[in-house]
Amino acid sequence: MSSPQGVRIALDTFSASFNKSAEWAGRVERAWAAALEHVSDKNLLTAVNRLCSQVFEYPPTLGHLVAECKKVVSEQGGTGLAGNQFQFCPDCEKYGGVVDVCVHFLKLELDEYKVFKCATSCICEGARAKFGRSTLQTWADMKATMENDHRIRLDHFYRTSGSMPTLHSSITEPEFWSKVLIRMEEDAKMGIPNKYEMWAQAMINGTLPPDAYPATDDVVVGARYQPTVPTTPTISQSQSTTSRMSDAEFWDNH
């Protein structure tokens, strides 16, 4: 469904490209909104950008834009203006049928440990209907391929799901996360509080007021390193007075 803002942006782009006045845009806005009601904002803006990059003997009309919208939808495997409506499962509905995967494996021949991240398709009917004609592999096929690959040793296979919509940094960046833990441990020994843990615990307890979120960066760092205001050096009277000497005195002293 197109939004009023999306229709106005498309109208502004069209008017600027084909020398249409603001008065004309105001007159046709209602007709455009009705004709493009079932087009998503993304497809609408893609279509109008394509239309404005083409050469026409006569200025295009709303019918040309509708035809271009249908082309955009068709390229995505849909039909008409709205395209296909897919029903995704709880594991992939947040990302429109996509499942993020992170695998930890060892290359046996090179004795090299790897962490690999990629996007895959879910195995539900909605995702397969959406990505069936694409080259996007399902997470199940990828896992089976890696398990049957005798060149590697698959240690961990993580994927997003309804209960874990994002993969934690300890999974996707294990080396970096270990450094973070070391830094947190060092700060704890030095008595430096972790403000993020304090805020998270306060949010869980319901004791953090809405205006308690920091508006700037680390307050502690600002307290440690107070900026110094540069001072203008004062010039004494003796320094400001230029000594006068004759040429002979100058050469005698140098």
Topology:
Blueprint: H1 4-17, H2 22-35, H3 41-52, H4 62-75, E1 98-107, E2 112-121, H5 125-131, H6 139-147, E3 152-159, H7 169-172, H8 174-189, H9 195-205, H10 219-224, H11 237-240, H12 247-253
Antiparallel strand pairs: 1-2, 1-3
Helix pairs in contact: 1-2, 1-3, 3-4
Key features?
11% strand, 254 residues, 12 helices
Averaged pLDDT: 82
**Structurally, how many domains make up the residues?**
3
Helix coverage percent: 40-55%
The best one-word shape is extended
Count up the helices.
Answer: 12
Q: First CA to last CA: what distance?
A: 87 Å
| Radius of gyration using CA atoms only | 32 Å
Structural class designation: mainly alpha
Number of strands: 3
Unreliable residue stretches: 215-228, 238-242
Helix and strand run: HHHHEEHHEHHHHHH
Identify the strand order in the major beta sheet.
2-1-3
Portion of residues in beta strands equals 5-15%
Largest sheet entry: 3 strands, antiparallel
